[in-house]
Amino acid sequence: MTKSLPLVFTAPRRGKPPVHLADLDAAGRKAAVVAAGQPAFRADQLSRHYFSNLTRDPALMTDLPATGRQELVDAVLPELLTEVRSLACDDGDTRKTLWRAHDGTLIESVLMRYTDRITLCVSSQAGCGMACPFCATGQGGLQRNLSTAEIVEQVRLAAASARDGALGGPGRLSNIVFMGMGEPLANYNRVLSAVRQITAPQPHGLGISARSVTVSTVGLVPAIDRLTAEGLQVRLAISLHTPDDELRDTLVPINERWKVAEVLEAGRRYADATGRRVSIEYALIRDVNDQPWRADLLGKVLREHLGQLVHVNLIPLNPTPGSEWDASPKPVEAEFVRRVRAQGVACTVRDTRGQEIAAACGQLAAEG
């Protein structure tokens, strides 16, 4: 057993992002405004523009004095992300954007319209250190953690884009999934701070329901337990990808530290504390993890560890160029679903999006 090993994932340091309103608590925001030479109450005005009006454009902040307005915005709401390019597909319902941070770091986010919601897939790190071999982000390694504000800014920009019709008509961003680049729980403090600002009521945050936020992890057990103790109502998603330790040691290398049973027990503690079902993410890979016996075993171990508090989200693999990995044939996928359900475990296939625009995490950034 290796539980005693410290949970430390050190990100290579690049240039530190400038401090932003979204990095700060209420007192910190006021202090930043005062440091910029303005009265403290301007912090509430800036928060309203940023979180409620979804803007950092000084020209739209007509309640601020014209003199010094630009300087105040530059100091407290510095530009964090610059769009490199956006690609759309699925009849305009999916839009993937490549962003460049202040230090040249590239990250991605994907905005998706469904019949009943608009969802943003957000990145929490530039790259990823978990080294899962079938993942484009994992193949590139970890560059650095994103700041709280860099995460929140992805959501703010997406909310503004949805409002302004980027998906073919005006809409409201309603759901956030931390399933973009990076392992969210390896950047725990910044991700948690971002979640709190995403879910805080306007104008102190973006006002998105915590129940509409999903935080994904490959299975960092101590961090799952920390999240459990937070008392949040976010959904926990565990990227399992196979129910047996032998294969998972290869597909998800962190499994050598925390085995399948340990990860699922941590998921059960989260479900018991929150009353929310845990989502099990399972990328179905041809001839690797799609065998009928693995479907039977998946259903069995999930029922044993999580009971009814679980849902399997089967993901047809979005292969990356030159990769040896490929998606399972549809008949194999259908049989896998049938067998998991036969064990009494809910199982659905995720709607695939964006294959023609390199929508697998990390592909667009890898292309530059």
Automatic annotation (TrEMBL):
<feature type="active site" description="S-methylcysteine intermediate">
    <location>
        <position position="361"/>
    </location>
</feature>
<dbReference type="GO" id="GO:0070040">
    <property type="term" value="F:rRNA (adenine(2503)-C2-)-methyltransferase activity"/>
</dbReference>
<keyword id="KW-0489">Methyltransferase</keyword>
<dbReference type="InterPro" id="IPR058240">
    <property type="entry name" value="rSAM_sf"/>
</dbReference>
<keyword id="KW-0411">Iron-sulfur</keyword>
<dbReference type="Pfam" id="PF04055">
    <property type="entry name" value="Radical_SAM"/>
</dbReference>
<dbReference type="InterPro" id="IPR013785">
    <property type="entry name" value="Aldolase_TIM"/>
</dbReference>
<feature type="binding site">
    <location>
        <position position="135"/>
    </location>
    <ligand>
        <name>[4Fe-4S] cluster</name>
    </ligand>
</feature>
<keyword id="KW-0808">Transferase</keyword>
<dbReference type="GO" id="GO:0046872">
    <property type="term" value="F:metal ion binding"/>
</dbReference>
<dbReference type="GO" id="GO:0051539">
    <property type="term" value="F:4 iron, 4 sulfur cluster binding"/>
</dbReference>
<feature type="binding site">
    <location>
        <position position="132"/>
    </location>
    <ligand>
        <name>[4Fe-4S] cluster</name>
    </ligand>
</feature>
<comment type="similarity">
    <text>Belongs to the radical SAM superfamily. RlmN family.</text>
</comment>
<dbReference type="InterPro" id="IPR007197">
    <property type="entry name" value="rSAM"/>
</dbReference>
<feature type="binding site">
    <location>
        <begin position="182"/>
        <end position="183"/>
    </location>
    <ligand>
        <name>S-adenosyl-L-methionine</name>
    </ligand>
</feature>
<feature type="binding site">
    <location>
        <begin position="239"/>
        <end position="241"/>
    </location>
    <ligand>
        <name>S-adenosyl-L-methionine</name>
    </ligand>
</feature>
<dbReference type="InterPro" id="IPR004383">
    <property type="entry name" value="rRNA_lsu_MTrfase_RlmN/Cfr"/>
</dbReference>
<feature type="binding site">
    <location>
        <position position="216"/>
    </location>
    <ligand>
        <name>S-adenosyl-L-methionine</name>
    </ligand>
</feature>
<feature type="active site" description="Proton acceptor">
    <location>
        <position position="108"/>
    </location>
</feature>
<keyword id="KW-1015">Disulfide bond</keyword>
<keyword id="KW-0408">Iron</keyword>
<dbReference type="GO" id="GO:0000049">
    <property type="term" value="F:tRNA binding"/>
</dbReference>
<feature type="binding site">
    <location>
        <position position="128"/>
    </location>
    <ligand>
        <name>[4Fe-4S] cluster</name>
    </ligand>
</feature>
<keyword id="KW-0819">tRNA processing</keyword>
<dbReference type="GO" id="GO:0019843">
    <property type="term" value="F:rRNA binding"/>
</dbReference>
<comment type="function">
    <text>Specifically methylates position 2 of adenine 2503 in 23S rRNA and position 2 of adenine 37 in tRNAs.</text>
</comment>
<dbReference type="GO" id="GO:0030488">
    <property type="term" value="P:tRNA methylation"/>
</dbReference>
<keyword id="KW-0949">S-adenosyl-L-methionine</keyword>
<keyword id="KW-0963">Cytoplasm</keyword>
<dbReference type="GO" id="GO:0070475">
    <property type="term" value="P:rRNA base methylation"/>
</dbReference>
<keyword id="KW-0698">rRNA processing</keyword>
<dbReference type="InterPro" id="IPR027492">
    <property type="entry name" value="RNA_MTrfase_RlmN"/>
</dbReference>
<keyword id="KW-0479">Metal-binding</keyword>
<feature type="binding site">
    <location>
        <position position="318"/>
    </location>
    <ligand>
        <name>S-adenosyl-L-methionine</name>
    </ligand>
</feature>
<keyword id="KW-0004">4Fe-4S</keyword>
<dbReference type="GO" id="GO:0002935">
    <property type="term" value="F:tRNA (adenine(37)-C2)-methyltransferase activity"/>
</dbReference>
<protein>
    <recommendedName>
        <fullName>Probable dual-specificity RNA methyltransferase RlmN</fullName>
        <ecNumber>2.1.1.192</ecNumber>
    </recommendedName>
</protein>
<dbReference type="InterPro" id="IPR040072">
    <property type="entry name" value="Methyltransferase_A"/>
</dbReference>
<dbReference type="GO" id="GO:0005737">
    <property type="term" value="C:cytoplasm"/>
</dbReference>
<feature type="domain" description="Radical SAM core">
    <location>
        <begin position="114"/>
        <end position="356"/>
    </location>
</feature>
